[in-house]
Amino acid sequence: MFSNLRSLIFKLDPETAHNLAIKSLKFNLIPNVLEKDRNNPLFKSKLFNIDLENPIGMAAGFDKNAEVYNSLFKLGFGFVEVGTITPFRQYGNPKPRVFRLVEDEALINRLGFNNLGSKNVLDRIKSNKQIGLLGINIGPNKDSVNRLKDYLDCFKTFQDVADYITINISSPNTEDLRSFHDQTKLNELLNTINKEKQNLGSKIPIAVKVSPDINNREIKKITEVLLSNSIEFVIVSNSSDSTRDSLNNIQKYQKGGLSGKPIEAKSTKLINEFYKILDGRIKIIGCGGVDSGKSAYEKFLAGANYVQLYTGMVFKGPNIVNMIKKELKELLIKDGVKNFTEIIGNK
After folding, report:
1. Contacts of residue 229, Cβ cutoff 8 Å, sequence gap at least 6
2. Contact indicator for 151, 169 with CB cutoff of 8 Å
3. 262, 270, 254: which is closest to 209 by C-alpha?
4. N or C: which end of the chain has fewer CB within 10 A?
5. Chain mean position to CA 244
6. Cβ proximity of 222 and 186 under 8 Å
């Protein structure tokens, strides 16, 4: 059905199309996908000690205001991450701010953490109990004078309702946010979060989402900080503010974060660099260009324990999880393994 509607959807402005997708899921206008291969032992795993039917997650950015996470679970996603959410409501950057690069199977966005604010989102989650594993991605307001406090306030707001919280230091669309990749600044941020976690007696797992545009020296310093602060997961990676020259679409030099197929190889290489240094001490969620069984397979081989996607669903439609599982199943059976975890890091 999506293939028939795609040309019509792609005539709409990308942000309008996205809002339409959210409304369709919210009001159950997109039918639940009938899973033919549910509970296949090939895909079963645990995330934060919670059983997962499969390791394919929805990345933050799709369900910014936590409106349709349960609908996404019904589409087959093993886990869902909502946000990025800031303490206070903000509009984000001026429109137009999302660009669809059809020939490249990519998006460029400079949304700028547009969301309804933590109080609005908290109330919604409390009134709509999640039916699967829910992560909440947090960040600072654009005009904040104390970004450290913003992260802390969001952490305190959501630590009771989330299954895990992601510290987003990697969006290219909030000025100077990526400065938190600096070893000293990142250590201060994570140390502050950990102290609050202890004060609250919280057991909430913490993930950190990093940029795909970091170099090997930065990777080593970041891993040292993650390990010293007992971070459970690292998400590799966010959208890229480079990687443009080989693109075909005329809009390729729009300012913003590039996501989708063009950053697949870059993300996979970065995952492998983190995997080699971390050696299993911190788990990895691989994100960037996942839209098929083969792309997920490559992420697992590189060292990802789980994968996330967003742009892939824009181009492949709401049945993408089943499409990935079907192809991934064939690849895993060909390998003669009983569970996908057996291939992690076998690149």
Report:
1. 187, 190, 191, 194
2. no
3. 270
4. N
5. 21
6. yes
Active site residue 171: yes
- Report the alpha-carbon distance of residue 269 to residue 236 in Å, rounded: 10
CATH class of 2-343: alpha beta
How does DSSP classify residue 102? Answer: G
Residue 116 and residue 114: Cα distance in Å, rounded? 7
Q: What are phi and psi of 154, to 5 degrees?
A: -65, -40
Are 300 and 284 in contact by the 8 Å Cβ rule? The answer is no
Q: What is the pLDDT along the chain (347 residues), one digit of tens a residue?
A: 566 678 788 889 999 999 999 998 988 766 555 566 778 999 999 998 899 999 999 999 999 999 999 999 999 999 999 999 999 999 999 999 999 999 999 999 999 999 999 999 999 999 999 999 999 999 999 999 999 999 999 999 999 999 999 999 988 878 888 988 998 999 999 999 999 999 999 999 999 999 999 999 999 999 999 999 999 999 999 999 988 999 999 999 999 999 999 999 999 999 999 999 999 999 999 999 999 999 999 999 999 999 999 999 999 999 999 999 999 999 999 999 999 999 999 97
- Residue count of the chain: 347
Give CA–CA dist 56/80, Å, rounded: 9
Q: Please tell me which residue in 118, 170, 171, 292 is annotated as part of the active site.
A: 171
Tokens matching residue 338: 């009983």
Q: What are the distances in angstroms from CA 53 to CA 25, 57, 235, 283, 324?
A: 21, 11, 20, 18, 14
Locate 158 and state its tokens.
């959501």
The radius of gyration of the chain's CA atoms, rounded to the nearest angstrom, is: 19
323 in Cβ contact with 335 (< 8 Å): no
Contact between 253 and 99 under an 8 Å Cβ cutoff? The reply is no
Rounded distance between C-alpha atoms, residue 48 and residue 339, angstroms: 18
